[in-house]
Design goal:
This protein has 214 residues and is an alpha/beta fold. It is built from seven helices and ten strands. The chain is 37% helix and 24% strand.
C-alpha cells in the first residue's frame, strides 16, 4: 500500500477498514464468535476501537505470524475444537462482504464440509512462463477465490496440521483442504467483495463505499 500504517487500519469514510469488515460479521446472525489475528503492535489500538463501534463478537485477539498461513494456523489453535462447528477465514482487507454472503457460505459448508466465495473470471487468462504465453486457459472454468472461506472445523484443522507437518505452503485455506483430499464447493460472490491491496484499490473502495454502503 506504500502507507505509513497497516492497510487494515487505513480509513474509509473516517472508519478503519478493519472496523468496516467486522461490522459485516457483527450483522450476520449466523456468526457466533470472531477471533482476530493481528500484528502484535496493533492490538492496543484495535481493542480500543471495539467498544466505540459496538463490536461485541470478538472473543480473542491473537498475534499473527510471518505469513497468512501462519496467522490462520495461530487462530485455529485457540478455537475450541469440542464445540466448534463451522470455521470461517476472512481477509481483514475485504470490507464489502455482505452478511447474506457470509450466511450462504456457512450453510454450504455445513452440508458439503468446505465452501468458499469466488467470482467468475471475466478476462482472458494466459498461462505464462519466462514472459511467453504457454497456453490460453478456458475462462469458463476459472474463478477468482474470495473470502470468507468456510470449513467444518475438523477438516480445516487436519488440513493445516498436515501442511505444517510437511512444510507445505499455500496461498489460501481452500488449497490446503483440497490437498488433504476434500472437495471445496463454490458460491458465486459479488464483484464488489474486493481485497484492498494496492493504493488504487483504496480509490475503488471509496467509490464502492459511497455507492453501496454510504
Amino acid at each position: 500500500m506504500h502507507a505509513d500504517r497497516a492497510k487494515q487500519m487505513l480509513e474509509l469514510g473516517g472508519v478503519p477498514l478493519l472496523v468496516h469488515t467486522l461490522r459485516r460479521f457483527e450483522a450476520c446472525d449466523a456468526v457466533d464468535q470472531v477471533i482476530l489475528v493481528l500484528q502484535p503492535n496493533l492490538t492496543s489500538e484495535v481493542l480500543s476501537l471495539l467498544p466505540k463501534h459496538h463490536l461485541k463478537k470478538i472473543v480473542r485477539v491473537v498475534a499473527g505470524g510471518a505469513e497468512r498461513q501462519d496467522s490462520v494456523y495461530r487462530g485455529l489453535q485457540v478455537v475450541n475444537g469440542e464445540t466448534a462447528g463451522i470455521v470461517l477465514v476472512h481477509d481483514a482487507a475485504r470490507p464489502f462482504i455482505k452478511p447474506e454472503e457470509i450466511r450462504a457460505v456457512i450453510e454450504r459448508a455445513e452440508t458439503k464440509g468446505a465452501a468458499i466465495l469466488a467470482s467468475p473470471a471475466v478476462d482472458t487468462i494466459k498461462q505464462v512462463k519466462q514472459s511467453t504465453i504457454r497456453r490460453t486457459l478456458n475462462r469458463q472454468f476459472i474463478y477468482y477465490a474470495q473470502t470468507p472461506q468456510a470449513f467444518q472445523y475438523a477438516i480445516l484443522k487436519t488440513a493445516y496440521d498436515q501442511a505444517f507437518a510437511e512444510s507445505y505452503r499455500a496461498t489460501d485455506d481452500a488449497q490446503l483442504v483440497e490437498r488433504a483430499g476434500h472437495q471445496v464447493s463454490i458460491i458465486e460472490g459479488s464483484p464488489i467483495n474486493i481485497k484492498i491491496t494496492r493504493p488504487f484499490d483504496l480509490k475503488i473502495a471509496e467509490v464502492i463505499h459511497k455507492e453501496f454502503f454510504g
